[in-house]
Amino acid sequence: MNIAVIGTGYVGLVTGVSLAEVGHHVTCVDVDNDKISSLRKGNITIWEPGLEELLQKNITHGKLFFTTAHAIACENAQIIIIAVGTPENEDGSANLRYVEQAIIDIANTITHRVTIVVKSTVPVGTAHRMCTILQENLQHGVSVELVSNPEFLREGSAIEDAFRGDRIVIGADTLSAFDVMEEVYRPFRIPIYKTDVRSAEMIKYASNAFLATKISFINEIAAICEQVGANVDLVAAGMGMDKRIGDKFLKAGIGFGGSCFPKDTKALIQMARNVGYDFEILNRVVEVNERQKVLLVEKLLERFGSLEGKQIAVLGLSFKPNTNDIREAASITITERLIRHGAKVIGYDPIAIEYAKNRLNEQMTYAKDLEAAVSGCDAALILTEWDEIKEVDVRVYHVMKTPIVLDGRNCYPPEIMAQHHIEYHSIGRPSAGGQYIQ
Ligand code: UGA
Hints:
Number of domains: 3
CATH architecture of the largest domain: 3-Layer(aba) Sandwich
EC number: 1.1.1.22
CATH superfamily of the largest domain: NAD(P)-binding Rossmann-like Domain
Enzyme class: oxidoreductase
Strand order of the largest sheet: 3-2-1-4-5-6
Bound molecules: uridine-5'-diphosphate-glucuronic acid
Distance between the termini: 60 Å
Radius of gyration: 24 Å
Domain UDP-glucose/GDP-mannose dehydrogenase C-terminal: 313-414
Protein name: UDP-glucose 6-dehydrogenase
Oligomer: single chain
Number of strands: 14
CATH class of the largest domain: Alpha Beta
Helix content: 40-55%
Shape: elongated
Structural class: alpha/beta
Strand content: 5-15%
Mean pLDDT: 95
């Protein structure tokens, strides 16, 4: 099929590349000239395992094209996928200006019947509202169908998710729209869940909010474990054996970050508020996450009294491993706080340093590797569970002034740290000697 994808951000690019890979003819369009010329050459600026190889392969095979002109992308398209961003407004609601612009651009361009697919995360009712805007702006005699098709890719495993996801959700109003979408996705062999447009839009928010709730829930359990002497990792493993609970998204730590959970939880709270409903659980999920982000700084303050003049290494800057994305990463809040408390901060990340430089406190410095980061430090904080950090020989921490590690992602067995005489504090787990910073 001939498919146009509007927006070459994270979701748009992965969608375009994976649709080309299964045999569709895909043209991706973006207003950013530099990005399009770099994508044409097969180069990407995001770090996503496997993406660049598939991009280059499909460009070479003549299945994937990039342009800044909507008219070129949409000219012969049977399907137009909108995958532009929906950033957060000040009140937490989703900002729809890019989606609306995409709809106007499509209306001004198409001269034939197409199926328009909203993949961007949008509040319930948006697709129908966009349909009205479209009808008002379309050329005489042209008709369209609008479909909701939310995205469930995770950064860092987006290619794996695109080809092995749990489900594809299609919300549509007509049988013909379902038929077209089944043709698009048939090669993926992933179960397709068909529903109405508004329910599809809600599935996206409800799924992200539920996963965020699991994380904040286990983080609350971790806080109680610290008081009663239990180990949250063992608790989560025992809970997860119950299939009704499942063992995923029960990893306690310093909370969720990234471009999706923080934004989508707030957008759902705001969406509920707009219809007069107070989403109490979700309010609390967000509050717990805010507290969780600064937990390590509080533990440090308790341990040292004052952080004035202390040298602190911050290991892992991206919001999670296998990405260079530092949007809403705990590293942002933590480095700000440490510097405000008078500490000198040295950051290290296997790949995100260049991106971090623009976003993190300019007073912080960066190290070329983990050993250089912790060398001579008073304490090391682990913020992201990169394999490189998890698999390091922990004796490296002996280059610190005194080896004190506060681990926000529970990377090491406390017994190993004790064996190597490293003072070790993690989340919701007693140290080998049963000690917590309370
Ligand atoms: C998330 C969802 O998992 C995707 O299904 C969804 O498509 C995407 O948002 C989106 O809406 O676009 P992503 O933000 O890439 O994907 O990353 P996750 O792997 O979900 O992790 C989010 C955050 O939660 C990370 O900061 C991670 O460290 C944290 N997390 C995750 C935990 O603290 N504990 C866990 O058990 C799992």
